[in-house]
Amino acid sequence: MGILFDEQGRSGAGLVDAPFRPGQSAEAAMAEAAMAESSWASEFRRRLGFDVPPYRLQFETMDLSARVGLIGLHWVMLTMHLPAYRAARFSITASCEIVPDRIAEARAASFPIGRAIDRYEELIAAPDVDVIDCCFGHRPSQMEHRRRVVELCTSSKKDVMIHKPPARRLGDAIELQDIAVRGGIRLACNQNCRYNPANYTVKQLLVPSRLGRPMTIELQCYWRGSVPSWASTDPATIGHTIHHADLIRWWVDSPCVSVTARARGRSSMTIYEFESGTLAYHMENHSGVRNHQVTTNIMAEQGVIRHGHNWNWHLPSSAAYDFVHIWRNTREEPVVMRLPEHVYEPSWSQHNPWIPSRGPYYDLGAPVAGMMGSLGSLIHANRSNALPDNSYAASIESLRMCLAAQVSARTGRSIDPSTLDPQTQAIL
Q1: What is the 3-state secondary structure (H, E, C) of 185-238?
Q2: Structure pTM?
Q3: Rounded distance, CA 198 to CA 79, Å?
């Protein structure tokens, strides 16, 4: 395996793996990589009729100087968030965690956590913190703290990102959004799945200047890990399923008007209908009999996409699972999008810290890339006085889709998500 040039990320579109040869200088290897990338980009343009789309946010043009406070250093933060934040050189000024061992673990891995603060109330009020990344887990007892965090952030005028799902009840999610709006702060939801390279690429392809809007989407997810009893729902766990429901809704970029779902055991099949006319099929299998993998087929107005995305950090490499194949004409071979090959491995985290020799470094694979994109979006919004790409309000619409699927699976009826009662989640 070579290295991806350069560490500044350049265009963030289809970088080429360029191995050193014996006696070859870094400059010569970089020049060779640039030539190969130019040649591939020309062939891409010839075959598809448009330039190579970006597979990530253009961090080089974004103001990422906002100072961040972290609340909660559980395993997701330690294994995925912090490697991304370190690579991007985000400014982490303070962290709050009630389990002392986690602070020690983060420091041992040379993660940027700033100074340790015992109480999140004190962290939110700190004058050297501009943005809060609230990483409470999905347990009901942990989710109850989210409202308190958002209320404190409105008092201190701090923008905040919380984890998905935005809530377990629609009414709670809407109430939290209302608190943020009244308090004049930006509230984001960490829908990090959007920012993993394969998923982000698909979004860039589904625009009028490339392949046009999607007409049909088929997404299948196999989940290897177990689902805890407190997270169990029908037809699937909101904590996992909302990633993919949100991804579909983000790609389609149109209101969902009908949801039809069926569930058996730990599997579900759901049909979403959108106002744009797009139909999407969404299958979740949480039986644990296969390695985790997501595959998608998309028929767009002007072409076809086959896509793969991997969440499984237990694999030595996810490169075989993260891919985007593009057709204008299915009688021909697909054009294969080049995605970053710096994929996530456990050695990037606590045990053998992966630290770029120069930074920042933006071209990472799933799932770490998603964490960088999600927080980076809010940081830039804070500095530029704009709305974040991953707004909490948009995530509420994805939650509606998941809750409508639950009601549909129980009743056997097709459900319009807009008809759900926010308090009871019954049909109005």
Answers
A1: CCEEEECHHHHCHHHHHHHHHCCCCCCCCEEEEEEEEECCCCCCHHHCCCCCCH
A2: 0.89
A3: 20
The string of DSSP codes covering 11-67 is TSSS--EEPPPTT--HHHHHHHHHHHHHHHHHHHHHHHSSPPPPSS--GGGS----E
Taking the chain, what is the end-to-end CA distance rounded to the nearest angstrom? Answer: 57
Distance CA 23, CA 57 (A): 35
Separation of alpha carbons 428 and 426, rounded Å: 6
pLDDT recorded at residue 349: 45
> What does the block give as tokens for 192?
């990090």
For 99-127, the DSSP string reads: -HHHHHHHHHTT----EEES-HHHHHH-T
* pLDDT tens digits, 126-164: 999 999 999 887 677 777 788 999 999 999 999 999 988
Amino acid at position 249, single letter: R
Phi-psi category of residue 104: left, alpha or beta, with phi > 0 → left and psi -120 to 50 → alpha: alpha
Could you tell me if 369 and 84 are in contact, meaning their C-beta atoms sit under 8 angstroms apart?
A: yes
Indicate if the pLDDT at residue 382 is higher than 60.
Answer: yes
Grade residue 277 by pLDDT with cuts at 50, 70 and 90: very high
C-alpha span between 123 and 152 (Å, rounded) = 10
Largest Cα–Cα distance of the chain, in whole Å? 72
Question: Which of 62, 64, 43, 44 lies closest to 53 in space, CA to CA?
Answer: 44
Q: Is 385 left (phi over 0), alpha (psi -120 to 50) or beta?
A: left
DSSP bridge pairs for 391: 188
**Residues near 178 by beta carbon (within 8 Å), at least 6 away in sequence:** none
Residues 233-255 have pLDDT tens digits of 544 456 568 889 999 999 999 99
Angle at 81 between CA 317 and CA 58, to 5 degrees: 85
Rounded-to-integer distance, Cα 423 and Cα 170, Å: 7
Rounded to an integer, what is the distance from CA 47 to the centroid of its chain?
A: 29
pLDDT tens-digit map of 391-416:
999 999 999 999 999 899 889 999 99
Burial group, residue 125, by CB count within 10 angstroms (0-12, 13-18, 19+): middle
CA-closest candidate to residue 70, choices 156, 162, 148: 162
Q: What is the mean pLDDT of residues 34-61?
A: 90
